[in-house]
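Hey, weird one. I pasted the Protein mmf1, mitochondrial sequence into the form twice and got a warning about non-standard characters only the second time. First submission, copied straight from the form history:
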Amino acid sequence: MGSLSNDKISVIILGGGIAGITLLRGLLQYSHIDPVVYEATQCYRDVGGGMALHKNAIGAMESIDPAIKNSYFRNANSMAADDETELSTHVVMVEGPFTGEILARLGTAKGRKTISRYDLLNGWFDLVPKERVHFGKRSHSLEELSDGSVRCSFEDGTTVTGDCVIAADGIHSKSRQFLLSKDHPAARPVNHDKWLSINRQIPMEDGLKVLTGPTEYVRIMIGPRGYISTSPLHKGKTLSMTLMTTGEATQENLDVRLEHSYWAGYDQECLSVVSVMRSGSGPDVFWNLADHDRAPIYHRNNVVIIGDAAHATMPFIGNGAAQALEDSAVLHAVFAKVQQKEDVPLAFQAFETVRKERSQLVVEASREAGRIDRYDVGHIPGADPYTRDGLDAIKKRFKEIGAFTNEVDVSPPVTIAPPLHHPPYQTTTSHHNPPVPPLSAHPKHPPILPLHPQHVLHQIHTDAAAPAAGPYSQAIKAGGTIYCSGQIPADASGQIVDSSITASTRQCCENLKAVLEEAGSGLGKVVRCGVYLTDMEYFQEMNVEYEKWFGHKPARSCIAVKQLPKGVKVEIDCIALA
């Protein structure tokens, strides 16, 4: 394909999704910028559930170009009779004593509508010159050239060279791996909480037969197994239904999760949705979700990552599309300062300064919201979905998360982006680029420190190990450490195994292994063990089996006790790195 050769600043945009296509529209406002999009798919496809863009997304669209917002309004399904009515996504309890109570209202804004990704992107595609979007171009690799330009190679064997690359190439971004290195722990997507999404779309007239609540807006109906949600699409002609739970994306797990017994205790409307999901040909699609751990950088020289390539997020606060639009709005603003090629690295540095911390906190906020959606609330002081005071604590936390994502003014980067200077090409350090105040410093956007992972206690549970026999978790993950409760020689059903010391020790270790693997760790990362024996005569026999499991010899205590639960002779606990 060659080079984008002219006197303008040539911008390669990898990915024609939400961030890429809106940024293309924005950059075309600048006569000296020559942007072209390269999209991996052959065309936009109508898959997955719908979305309802929040207040921050609506503001970002307006900031880039009012035509982008108008297209969204024109192609979406109205959630109210007029665009001046404030509406939100309702998070509703459907299990326990407070069934039917609204736990949170997310994304409150005037003019909120629901839309499929397909309708959204096709509407925006109509706003740009068709010759500037090339489909079927999946990026394979990037190469920085000696003159500062960047060559992009595609899987079809073609290449293109431009002055810079803005990579919006999705959650499996090759550009992210280029920036961080393929072996970096944050280079690839993760699914720490084992989320599984099951989706089906049906005609709205069929949906009205099973739903008793309103269908004109998004509802998220939550309980201890996860949530069930419904939203209207295609101008109200289609109802999108989603089951959000946990497990691997296998047919066996799908069959279990489409049984009423799996959702026992949920209200009748939810069970009706489950019935529809499993009827006929079943769900349209099911897959394991993923997001990204924190990347240390978003740019290097003339390459920057945005959208899901930079900060893929879970859907639990409905802000993935909004964060992509915030990226597009900020890049559109800083490119207003770019006058020549030497400005580009400084523009990318300004973008990273504004966007990195906020976007990464949104990823972590979404993880937390997902845990709340399945009643995993141990990290919130006083929280309990089965008591009034405990429920109020959850509501307060959800309100903080909603305000953090929604109440942000995307306009400051337009006015606070500094004048760009012209250091040598290789220099992108901050003394050449006065720091841009991050959005979190804006009064509408207070920082929320508890969203950092070290402040979150995550309960670990797996069906592959002996269940907890009391009011405790199999393990707690806090920051980078996993604290495993003591394991006795019981199998996954809770039955005590063979009474020999060797077999008992083996079962304890197998249970610890299953719990640690569920938490994303393993026995090889154990730093300390505690062994409890009812008689020190068992010490030598226990050691022979124990050493087979802990060859790296973590620190250990071995204590003789009077007795252990269920009359067993051995119990082992441990602490491990995540």
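That's the output from the first submission. The warning seems to come from a hidden character in my clipboard, not from the data itself. The chain has 15 helices and 26 strands.
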